[in-house]
Amino acid sequence: QLQLVESGGELVQAGGSLRLSCAASGGTFSRSAMGWFRQAAGRERTIVAAITRSGSNTYYIDSVKGRFTISRDNARNTLYLQMDSLKPEDTAMYHCAAHPTSANYYFTSRWDYDYWGQGTQVTVSS
Asked: Residue 23: which of 58, 75, 69 has the closest Cα?
C-alpha cells in the first residue's frame, strides 16, 4: 500500500515561490503515474499537474503553465511541485496522488488515482 506525505506548504506573498514535496513509501512509486491536485475552501478538488512514471511527459492546467513545474525523483521516491510567481488564487490545500500503472501515461481525472496524501496548505497573500 503506497503512502504519500506532502510537505512544503506555507503562507507566502504574491509573486513568491514555494516547492512542495510528496514523499512516497510502502509501494511502487516508480511504477505510478503521479499528480498534484488542489482544493480551495468550498470547492472541488481539481488537477494542477500530472507526470508519467518515467517523468518524460507532464501536464499542466492553463492557469499554472509557465509558473509551476512538476518533477519526480524515482530514486528518492519523491514527487515535487515547484511553484513560482504565486497568485492569491493559488491558495488551496495541495494533495499529491498516485495511480499505479504499466503504461507511461499521465492521468488528469481525480477518479483515476488510487492513493492520496493528506495535503499541505498553501496560502498566498496579496
From this structure: 75
